[in-house]
Amino acid sequence: MTVTVTNSPLGTLQQRMLGAGSGLPPVLPNHPTQSATTIDGWKSVLFGLPFLLAGVGAAFAALYGNPARKHAPDWLIGLIASFFFIGGAFFIIHGLRSAARKAAYQSEAALHPGQPWYADYHWHTEGFTFSAFRAMIGRLLFALFWSAFLVPFFWIGATARGAWPFLVGASLFALIGLYIWYRFVQMLADLLLYGNSFLEYDQFPYFLGSTLNVRLRTPRNFSDLDELTLTLRCVTEKYVTTGVGQNRSSQVVCYELYKDQTTFSRDRLAAFAGANISIQFPLPADKPATSLISTPPTYWEIQATGTSKVNYEAYFLVPVYKPS
Description:
Blueprint: H1 12-17, H2 41-64, H3 74-111, H4 117-120, E1 127-130, H5 132-159, H6 164-194, E2 197-201, E3 206-207, E4 211-216, E5 227-242, E6 249-265, H7 266-270, E7 277-282, E8 298-307, E9 312-318, E10 320-321
Parallel strand pairs: 3-10
Antiparallel strand pairs: 1-2, 2-4, 4-7, 5-6, 5-8, 8-9
Helix pairs in contact: 2-3, 3-5, 5-6
């Protein structure tokens, strides 16, 4: 059953700010992205280099600087230095990996003309594994970074005269941090109860205009699910800049170009105990093909969402391309 694409739950103003609106694809809020950031390649390397050098300089000042000129304890200077160093290292490593991947793509594409699936992504032809462990670790690192980022603001607000706005602001952002930690606990519970998940391909690749047949290996404690929803989706990511002047910021936003969905009730799920769940979706011929090498990318995925006392969630990329 094909589901008509409608506007997402985001408000009209927020939709327009993110490039969506009437007649345009809806935004997918809180959707995991394939893009790590909004810049790639050598631009990312050049962007990250000043931050890395600033981190090294701040660490040097904490270790060897004149104590009389320090306005904060060494541990706080070292913490701030680590923010700059880690941020810079992230952009540099990301840029180098992106540049290397583009070079490898050119080489593979030349060897397989008209067959982009050989170069577009490191596909495993037997299927796709969703690592709940990796997702949980990513959320943990983000929660730790968010909490550590607020420490300097709490310190300033608590120690500097008249700096109480820093304390108030940090407290408000700490409330957001509580939600981030809550999501981490959810993902940890998901990992412990259900483990990693695997979606098996019946063929490789799949072509637009044909039928997609896959099999979901039932996760651990599968019988605990009250309902399982499987959503085939075509997603395109865009780099969206909002604000003006010094208040400008860029983010990766996911847009839903196509959606098809099927739901299994608890009674239907009982029939699959100890067996794989066969899934079939028709693929439209007039939608974009997968292009994960593009920046930003377009791709097809199947999202599995199970409801229970501990909800189950997994995302699987599927190789959907135009016939050669």
